[in-house]
Design brief:
Layout: E1 9-13, H1 17-27, E2 32-37, H2 62-71, H3 75-81, E3 85-88, H4 89-92, E4 96-97, E5 100-101, E6 104-105, E7 111-114, H5 117-129, E8 134-138, E9 141-146, E10 153-158, E11 163-165, E12 168-171, H6 179-185, E13 192-208, E14 221-223, E15 231-237, E16 243-249, H7 259-265, H8 273-280, E17 282-283, E18 288-299, E19 310-312, E20 318-319, H9 327-343, H10 352-375, E21 382-384, H11 391-403, H12 408-418, H13 429-436, E22 455-456
Parallel strand pairs: 1-2, 1-12, 2-8, 6-22, 12-19
Antiparallel strand pairs: 3-7, 4-5, 9-10, 10-11, 13-16, 13-17, 13-18, 13-21, 14-15, 15-16, 18-20
Helix pairs in contact: 1-5, 1-9, 2-9, 7-8, 9-10, 11-13
The protein binds flavin-adenine dinucleotide.
Length: about 475
């Protein structure tokens, strides 16, 4: 075991996206890193038992892609070489909100990469496998090991009895991480659990379309679930000519397990085109379903006397309602914070885990507020250790939804705040004034009609809603 960081060994529990990115960060500062996963990790892009969400729709928010690129330079080019597709979310994906179609806009902040999740994981894993000081191996972690003084963790114990010793233990074991239980059994405090449950279901199929089925100049379509109809639908570009077709539902509106059932599930939607698109899609995979209660976070940074030489990352910290597409991005933010904490002047293995966990907490707070803040409006939402947003905050969100179809600046701000993870985009007096002044006696349109084919450029929005980018 090493005394200084550069002689040290990190052990990562879980070799999925967060574990791999954490390994990339730790390998820059420590002598070596061992990544353990209960799955034998494959050499191909396939769905694994340990990450069953691999068969479901995945979006990578642009800031997440940038963080992964910072850690693994050139990875975006590798993803594109592997068949991932570059698209612009606000320009290429017409979006039907609860008050109508949003204006389409070519925003820098919404340049995204389409993929099937196993391909993203595969390209990251392939890159890490080429790194000399990283070992990725099969091993089911059955517990954590602490020193005699019960101050620091010193490794993990595997099923079968083997001990893997290390100077830093990183939990990337996902939403189902057992670290809380293991820490308690060692006499440490476990983190508080925060939850907002909206009981959501996903049904995803990977598909192709005959030319002309998707509208000219579009690469998909999106109808997020809304409070009045908690059923959402999307077609998004994936990779290698394949699209992701996904239906989802909140408040126990679980989409069914067969495509005709999914088409029928969407028949209550405002336009028949969604069910028709399901019927016209040609499957290249099985249709699979997934259910989860909602967003959950473990408040690791709140533990009064945290175990030394330990930290947690990815879904082991926060597993968020996936419709907001934040999970991989939070894993990437975490890995960059870990890189910064380990590389800071004077950092030691005693100080870095705490600085890392506190730095990540700020991003997780925001991501959680975005997903949970929207979700609390759904009937039957259950909140655990999470304060209900104020009526003013809920009204603000409702107002944004009402105005988005007619106000390009508001659509832009929403996209930047959510897709671009920039809270300040909505903390704007001009936006607040427009929301406050909105008409209160309107109803959402019964028939939203067709989406616009016009794509507005960034950022020179004109007309009564003009807002300069530096307002
Ligand atoms: C339906 C659905 C849709 C989603 N859509 C999106 C999306 O659009 N965009 C997005 O960014 N995110 C999305 N996510 C979230 C995203 O999948 C995760 O945030 C992301 O995979 C990072 O997870 P992770 O690496 O922390 O955990 P996971 O991917 O869950 O991996 C945990 C790993 O730990 C291993 N493991 C667990 N226990 C042990 C043990 N005891 N010993 C050894 N290994 C162990 C598992 O085998 C697994 O490989 C979605 C999730 C779901 C469920």
């Amino acid at each position: 075991m090493g005394d200084s960081m550069k002689d040290s060994h990190a052990v990562v529990v879980g070799g999925s996206i967060a574990g791999l990115l954490a390994a990339a960060a730790a390998a820059k500062h420590l002598q070596r890193v061992t990544v353990l996963d209960r799955d034998p990790l494959p050499d191909e892009p396939v769905v694994r038992k340990g990450a069953p969400q691999g068969s479901q729709a995945h979006v990578l928010l642009p800031p997440g892609e940038r963080k992964i690129e910072e850690l693994l330079p050139g990875i975006s080019d590798e993803l594109i070489a592997a068949g991932c597709v570059r698209y612009n979310h606000t320009a290429d994906i017409p979006t039907l909100g609860s008050w109508g179609w949003h204006p389409r806009m070519q925003l820098r902040e919404t340049e995204a990469l389409g993929f099937r999740r196993p391909l993203l994981e595969h390209v990251i894993r392939r890159r890490l496998r080429g790194q000399e000081n990283v070992e990725i191996r099969q091993g089911t972690v059955a517990g954590l090991l602490a020193d005699e003084a019960k101050e620091n963790l010193v490794g993990v114990g595997l099923k079968g009895g083997e001990a893997v010793l290390g100077d830093l233990v990183i939990d990337a074991g996902g939403r189902g991480s057992k670290s809380s239980k293991w820490l308690r059994s060692l006499g440490f405090e476990a983190p508080e659990l925060v939850e907002v449950r909206v009981h959501l279901g996903y049904a995803t199929e990977f598909v192709e379309f005959a030319p002309g089925v998707l509208g000219d100049g579009t690469k998909g379509i999106l109808m997020p679930a809304r409070v009045t109809l908690p059923r959402g639908f999307a077609i998004l570009p994936a990779d290698n000519g394949v699209y992701t077709l996904v239906a989802n539902g909140f408040s126990r509106h679980y989409p069914p397990r067969d495509r005709e059932g999914v088409a029928e599930f969407l028949e209550g939607a405002p336009l028949p085109m969604f069910a028709e698109l399901v019927r016209q899609a040609r499957p290249v995979s099985d249709l699979t379903t997934y259910r989860m209660p909602g967003s959950m976070r473990r408040v690791w940074e709140g533990i009064e006397s945290p175990p030394g030489r330990f930290c947690a990352i990815g879904d082991a910290v926060a597993s968020l309602n996936p419709v907001y597409g934040q999970g991989v991005t939070m894993a990437a933010f975490g890995a960059r914070h870990l890189d910064d904490a380990l590389g800071a002047d004077g950092a030691t293995l005693d100080s870095a885990p705490g600085s890392f966990q506190r730095a990540l907490a700020g991003d997780v707070d925001y991501a959680f507020a975005v997903s949970a803040g929207g979700d609390v409006r759904y009937p039957g939402a259950e909140l655990e250790n999470f304060a209900h947003p104020s009526p003013e905050e809920v009204e603000f969100l409702n107002g944004l939804e009402q105005l988005a179809p007619r106000d390009a600046a508001i659509t832009q701000a929403i996209a930047e705040a959510t897709f671009g993870m920039r809270p300040e985009a909505l903390q704007d007096e001009a936006i607040a004034a427009r929301v406050a002044a909105r008409p209160r006696d309107e109803q959402p349109p019964v028939d939203p009609g067709d989406y616009s084919t016009e794509v507005l450029p960034e950022p020179s929005l004109t007309g009564p809603n003009e807002r300069n980018s530096d307002d």
